[in-house]
Design goal:
530 residues, alpha+beta, Tumour Suppressor Smad4, Phosphorylase Kinase, domain 1, Transferase(Phosphotransferase), domain 1, 3 domains, 7-stranded antiparallel β-sheet, globular
Length: 530
Amino acid sequence: MAAATMDLSDIVLVLGNVEGIENILGLSENRRYEFTPTEGNDGSAVNWRGGQPVKLTGPCLCFMFGQHLYSPQGWVGGSSPDSDDCDLQLAKDNRTGVSRRHFRIDISPGGRCPRLTNLSRNAIRIHGAGGTIILDQEESVDIISRVTIDLGQVLVRAWRPVLSREQERRYNTNVENFHREFMNALPKPAVASMAPTLDIRFGLNNAVYKREEEGYTGAGSFASVMKVKELRTGKSFAAKVPHYKTSDPAGKVRKRWESLTDEFQKLVKLKHAHIVQAIEILPGRNEIEPPWLIMEWVPLDLDSMSLNDHEILVLLRQVSSGLAFMHASGFAHRDLKPENILIHEHTGGFSAKIADVGMSKYNIRGKMQTYAGSIAYMAPEFWESELAYTNAVDMWSFGIIAVKLLTGWESISDGLDEVMQPSRTWHQNWIRNSIIPRLDLTPAGFEPLLRRLLSEAPGERLTASVCEEWLRTNAQELISIQVGDRCVLLAGEERRHVRSIHPTLSTTRADNNPSPRSTIPDTEPWGSPR
């Protein structure tokens, strides 16, 4: 039982008003979390309630820094009676819909507040002042104010105490210690600390990676990518390394680790010929050094390539294939742009690979609510006052990339970085004045495809799988060569024996070889009159 004189800065989260459970203190070892404060004259009797107006009934429980924490990852709540598996038992068994390990409570490295992560396939509803949030498996939410955790038949009220300025300072110290202990507990290869320099990391199966001279290929807002060589095999790889400072607090160190680990886990699930593959993730020699995400080495991106018309068609089909796999796996990329499409050249052609899935989102319900992406490639629904978009945002981005490639539009992003406060009205005007007029410059055979990709209504856009099939079946009909001043379509064996330095996309058809009608219904593009 927690003492009434406890320091409120030691409390991570208080739980009360439990519904759907009889005698919660009698389950497993729950009594160790019991919290029974008494009235006092120092204001603590009010502050521990978190300022909530609702009446608190029944026993209260609380998670505290350094107490009854058996894993540095946090406290687990569920229906398992095994205290080694579940810290707080919230149901006698899983017949109530509460999984054996249903959720985890820890500290958010970004928000310095309690964070709830759904560990179960059963959804969790979080009811708060701003409405209800539905968390699917592996999704998290920061608890910044009082909420009700809805597990179906079981409901639990959760909140943080109100802290004084001095208590808040001590709380922040506890938070940093929590993150530091988390990082120190991460498993590391036995030889990791033996690396003689920052340029060398030891991996699995005796792998040794060393940064190559002049090996940096690019830098983003979060990380840089450098070329490394595995010394035993001599094979080259890419290493994504987050930006860091030696003075970074433990919370920021953990946030870097979680961001890179999240990207690694996504790539592991997305094994596809047209998605960059992850190899392993390597921690630093100490808590300060950043981790390395080892990936396959693909030196070029789409912006660095000059493609002819046939290659453009191949690339678009490959990218749509990768997107179709992502979407079928429950992921949306959300930041598709030329810099995130890498090109691996090989004998007889090339292979396009979708990269930088760090912004991607797994959401089996299809509705997402987080602002993400690059302005030039963002779909109109990102600018709605209430965000609720689907993976159709990727198809809009794909359509913009297609327009860029098919019209040779090199300056698509010119001036966009200077826009200080982009808005829905600004975006609408930019689409009408800059994007829609470009459709007239694209090959006629592509017009139905692009109109469907750039539809204002997300539900009317082509899916990635339909787009891939359209490109596969229509590619041969869209390739032509220029003979004198006539555009001639060659078919089958004839095409194999004719090469053109500048192949073009056909805007006309030879009378003796008419093309089939497109199976894509014509749809007006975004902003067109209806």
